[in-house]
Amino acid sequence: MNNELVMKSEIINQNQQSSPDTIDTMPTLRVLHLAGSRVSNFYYNLSILYAKEVVQPVGVSSYYAVVHPDGFWQLGTSLDSLSDKMSLQDMIPRLPQIDVVVPHMFCFPGMTSFRAFFEDLLGIPVVGSPCHSTSLATNKAQTRSVVSASGVQVAKAQQLRRGDTLTMKPPFVVKPTSEDNSLGVTLVWDESQIEAALDRGFELDDLLLVEDYIPGRELRVGVVESAGKLWVPPMIEYLVSKEHPIRTIHDKYDLQSDGTPGKQPEKPIAKPICPANVTPELFEKLANAAKTAHIALGCRDYSLYDFRVHAETNEPYLLEAGLFWTFGKISMISRMLQADGQSLENVALELWSVAANRTRIACSSAFKYVSL
Length: 372
Fold this sequence. Notes:
Layout: H1 3-18, H2 20-23, E1 29-36, H3 41-51, E2 60-67, E3 73-76, H4 88-91, E4 100-103, H5 108-111, H6 113-121, H7 131-138, H8 140-149, E5 157-160, E6 172-176, E7 186-188, H9 194-202, E8 208-212, E9 216-226, E10 229-231, E11 236-238, H10 249-252, E12 272-273, H11 280-296, E13 302-310, E14 316-321, H12 332-339, H13 344-356, E15 358-363, E16 366-371
Parallel strand pairs: 1-2, 1-4
Antiparallel strand pairs: 2-3, 5-8, 6-7, 6-8, 9-10, 9-11, 9-13, 11-12, 13-14, 15-16
């Protein structure tokens, strides 16, 4: 990672320990943590679950803006000291001076519209990919089309709307194109299961992706930008099995009585292992595919990808992209960094500082964002 920013963080820490008077003179990075959801209680609780775990690097001053499904907002210096609810119109003038926004939202508007609102309209830099990239990557069908055109291998699939004729043959996986966390995902082994799987998917999305099931291993691969280069940390493998061949939402969260996510399960059936036990050859294949996807999708700062590695050919197939990282210890990229011996606080400080130093420039009919 960027040694200059790591050294800066260590200097700040040393100064705080040696001289209390120095604290007031050190520059502070003012970070707005954006959390909640306008869509549902499920995504609201999911966002808050991760936002609670965000790291607090030395030299950072944190503030929180939380949106609720009813459209009202709360502001505060922590999630435990939020204001009374207010409208968007009342919230905007009450925002403090902010250097950068760190998003902790997982719903589609949170991944797209809310990022664009703060970065493109309010002019506050946002950590992570720009909204046009997150919008593309949140749609599994569009993601496939873009990355495959750049040479990344994907499984055979069909997009399906209500009334369309299904041409795929089992086994296949039915997925809503724009949902996350395995919502509405069904593995279909035979034709008797097709109708129920499609009904479940159409409850959540008007467009489904029906994709060939790839038997084999499931791995998650992260990409982090550092000093102008793309870096792939140790990978995570989810130990799927013949009895439990794909991950479900129950592998990711303990659901509460109302169906909203609680904490991550202590003993998921598909146990995550990091670092994954992969050969150098397979690591290189996965890393190259992830970097290619990062570039093809127009990602920024970091990105995350799910792959299946075929049991017979050992070839990786990209399943989907996840352009989120909430910089908490329970986040997947965070676990990858820790497995590599990296300081999560230092990496977060580097990426947040880089984002804060981006400036917006009008370019034709759009904006582009460049480092100062």
